[in-house]
Amino acid sequence: MELEKNNKNELLELVQDISEMVDIHYIRQKEPKGLGHAIRCAKTFVGNEPFAILLGDDIVYNDEKPCLKQLIECYDEYKTSILGVQTVDKESVSKYGIVDGILIEDRVCKVKGLVEKPSIEEAPSNTAILGRYIVTPKIFDILDNTKPGKGNEIQLTDALLELIKEEAMYAYNFEGKRYDVGDKLGFLEATVEYALRKPEIRDDFIKYLRGMENSIINR
Questions:
Q1: Cα(207)–Cα(189) distance, rounded to whole angstroms?
Q2: Which of 31, 66, 145, 214 has the largest count of CB atoms under 10 Å?
Q3: DSSP β-ladder status, 177-180 and 127-135
Q4: According to the UniProt entry, what is the EC number of this protein (predicted)?
Q5: Are 130 and 217 within one domain?
Q6: 163 and 195, same structural domain?
């Protein structure tokens, strides 16, 4: 390997460590038919097991207990589908799928319904689904029969609404800072804040930011 030839042992160790963490399987969605369709493409790979859905537009930072671990623990307790949620400003509800639910314990509510990107007046709450789910395999049979909805795409929210009719569903208000990296400003915020958490570059990056601050002030 080039890293080994060039005596870049720290980088080599980092690459090797990452490669040993997980096995990655790639399934291509051949047509842009929506999130529900993309998930359905993984049916034969997932099989008859509960599985996690992690949307790439959302990154969650929690250095004590990752968001997915929190949801898995909630699933282990309730043995049914779990939605990862957080509260958002009322002005932001129109950007998200919103949960209509009943609080049953700290951070957990039983889901009665879902409303996709409602107006402030239509929103049943300000509890938003934020790109993290654990779903039972029953969702696949529902997706097989879900007709295209908004945008002529197969919508995951439509399938989840049907799933609620067949089994209990819960929403877990996870702990952690969530970044919307599908938004330009959110992407920049995540980049800066994650860089500041890296001890090997933090000091130099702070110097750079201070220089930028002075440059902006002097403009």
A1: 17
A2: 66
A3: unpaired
A4: 2.7.7.9
A5: no
A6: no
- Exposed, middle or buried, 110 (CB in 10 Å: 0-12/13-18/19+)? middle
Candidates 127, 154, 128, 124; CA nearest to 58 is: 128
Q: Which strand (E) or helix (H) includes residue 164?
A: helix 156-166
Does residue 159 share a domain with residue 101?
yes
Q: Are residues 8 and 111 in the same domain?
A: yes
pLDDT tens for 107-136 read 999 999 999 899 999 999 999 999 999 999
For residue 20, the domain's CATH number is 3.90.550.10
Four-CA torsion 105, 111, 112, 114, nearest 10 degrees? 140
Contact 85, 58 (CB under 8 A): no
* Same domain, yes or no: 145 and 189: no
Comparison of pLDDT for 152 and 112, the residue scoring more = 112
The pair of three-digit structure tokens given for residue 77, joined into one six-digit string: 């307790």
- Same domain, yes or no: 191 and 109: no
**Cα–Cα distance, 55 to 143 (Å, whole number):** 18
| Span between the terminal Cα atoms of the chain, in Å | 47
Count of structural domains, the chain: 2
pLDDT tens for residues 37-56? 999 999 999 999 999 999 99
Instruction: Scan for tokens 């720290």, then name that residue.
Output: 10
